[in-house]
Amino acid sequence: MDKGYIENGFIIDLTNTKKTSEIIYELSRVLEMPEAKGKHICLKLGSVSLSQAELTSIKALVELMESTLAFISTSSTDTLESATALDIKISEFTNEVEAPSFDAVEPTPEVSSALDNIFGEETTAENSEEVNSSEVVEPLENTDKPEVHEIIQHNDSAIQVSVNKDDSEDVVLKKSEAEKLPTLYLRKTVRSGQSISSDGNIIVIGDVNPGAEIIAKGDITVWGILGGIAHAGSNGNEYARIRALKLNPVQIRIADVFARRPDTINLPYIQKSSEYVPEEAYAYKGSIVIRKFHEDN
Amino acid sequence: MTGRVIVITSGKGGVGKTTTNANIGTALARAGNKVVMVDTDLGLRNLDLLLGLENRIVYTIVDVVEERCKLKQALVKDKKNPNLCLLAAAQTRDKTSVTEEQLKDICNKLKKDFDFILVDCPAGIEQGFQNAVAGASEAIVVTTPEMSAVRDADRIIGLLEAREEIKSYKLLLNRVRPNLIKSNDMMSVEDVVEILSADLIGIIPEDTGIITSTNKGEPIVNDEKSLAGKAYNNVAKRIMGEEVPFLDLEEDSGVLSKVKKFFSNLIGKEK
CA quadruple B9, B12, B15, B18: dihedral positive or negative? Predict the structure, then answer.
């Protein structure tokens, strides 16, 4: 193996990634930066096994972003073989070279599911227990509330939240509580500065814009984009749910469980699209979980 | 004669309320309407500057309210257009010097003699805003394609909807830069309209001519060549009930941009 030396280039450390889709996502994120254009890229790939086809895709991605793939380093023998077959240079990095590290960011579910479709579900052993492939889970970042944190640490996964079928049956039984409550029906855009609260359920036909808040003892349903603050089950009913055609809330609260929008997707306004999949948020083990209603669900 | 009272408001400052007011007012007057502009931004008046009338102000709206002069005496006639008048704000007073009732009363009196009463609203949602909106029955909400301005416009629309006397409100998108929209660095017109779910009355492109026209005290609608001037003229026509298509703001009309446009349309359709 050659010793890594590159001119006009930099090293991208992807050793923390576990899946091909994560590599692709991280890589595209880094390569999008204008500084990456026209540079030689060295990849530290870690333990992920990559087939020839996947490695070709990664190379193509680098070239698509107007950079060139100089060489890679890997600890996986499969990747090593693929790289040799593709005539990609392999190198060991020495610690003398300071590699810029990028915080791994969890790709949005749309991105990861799209990438998974391309590259196949390649969850590693630890991950496959946590992720239920039949339901796409879009986790929200949990805030620094101590009790929330504890539970997260206990689960040992701050970002991925699992959903078990058995538990959801339990949830279905209890949700009928909300059905007994009266419902406030609104057909308007709820705008910044407006606050709507109800002792029952709230249905909004229209958007809830950022800066608005909706508080209900029961469920909240928004037939539009939910961009403000939503608090369902405000009297402590943790089986309350929040549904919208697109959930983009600044904060979601269900009973005492609290989550805020991750900083990585911190866009107050999002584009309307005909391709939205309705989403539902509910509390599960002290976290807020968002699931999408796909046709197959 | 019963005139239409239109308040021009935005919530956020610096998005172009006063510029819009001066230009729409001038354009409406040029089209033969009798127009009066009422500056309610007490303590921070600007409208007189934009019209180049600062040196002619003798009485202000506060003098009218405190009965130091008659309403007609306080109206300053425009230099060029005899159809255009200004009721200036007092610079030495603050928003509490006039009440909602007093402003409503002034608007009702002006309605008898003018076709259009354009009320220039101060920034913010406090007393100044409440005063300005009090006499109006229509509103134009000025915003720019920025998150902060859109957020504030949303708040303002909410407040306008809560007021029964406001029968209709329209959205005016100011300082639009087509190049930035094309490169995805600015919210597009469609995005803003969808977010605010309000009808659009005009799209005004960013124009450096506005700066010189403001400094000269000469509204840009008087400049036939200016794109922003044309856009403001179109807004005036729409206020008068004409149907005018929105301007094509594409700056370069070379072959290359047409080819690009063609392809982007093509790709857009495939989606």
Answer: positive
A-interface mutation test, from B154, B185, B194, most A Cβ less than 10 A away: B154
Measure B171 CA to nearest chain A CA, in Å. 15
pLDDT tens digits, one per residue of A242-281 = 999 999 888 899 999 988 887 766 566 666 677 788 999 9
Order across the sheet with B75-77: list the strands.
Answer: B75-77, B84-87, B35-39, B116-120, B4-9, B138-143, B168-176, B200-205
**Which positions in chain B touch A206 (Cβ < 8 Å)?**
197
Say how far apart CA A175 and CA A172 lie, in whole Å: 5
Most B CBs within 10 A among A186, A188, A189, hence the mutation to make, goes to A189
Which residues span the domain enclosing B150? 4-270
Rounded Cα distance, A128 and A122, in Å:
9
Residue in A21, A15, A16 with CA at minimum distance from that of residue A45: A15
* Residue A17, φ and ψ in degrees, nearest 5: -80, 150
In CATH, what number is assigned to the domain containing residue B235?
3.40.50.300
Q: Name the E strands within B79-237.
A: 84-87, 116-120, 138-143, 168-176, 200-205
Specify whether the CB–CB gap between A272 and A244 falls below 8 A: no
CA distance B158 to chain A (A): 6
**Which tens digits make up the pLDDT trace of A113-128?**
555 555 544 433 333 3
Q: What is the number of structural domains in chain B? A: 1
Residue in the block written with tokens 């390569």: A31
**What is the Cα A241 distance to its own chain's centre?**
20
Query: Which chain A residues are closer than 8 Å to B269 by Cβ?
Result: none
Side-chain half-sphere exposure of A55, counting CA atoms within 13 A = 27
Question: What does the pLDDT read at residue A15?
Answer: 75
From chain A, the residues in CB contact with B191 under 8 A are 269, 271
Q: Would the pTM count as exceeding 0.90?
A: no
> Is the confidence metric ipTM above 0.85 for this complex?
no
State the smallest CA–CA distance between residue B138 and chain A in angstroms. Answer: 19
What's the rounded Cα separation, in Å, for the pair A284 and A161?
9
Max Cα-Cα span within chain A: 72
Chain A neighbors of B150, CB-CB under 8 A = 269
Q: Is the pLDDT of residue A154 over 70?
A: no
d(CA B250, CA B178): 6
Residues paired with A12 in a beta bridge: A43
Minimal-distance CA residue of chain B relative to A267: B147
Distance set, CA A156 to CA A149, A150, B78, B214 (Å): 10, 10, 73, 61
Domains (range + CATH), chain A: 2-92 (3.30.70), 132-292 (2.160.20.70)
In the predicted model, what is the mean pLDDT of residues A15-28?
Answer: 74
Tens of pLDDT along A60-72?
777 777 777 777 8
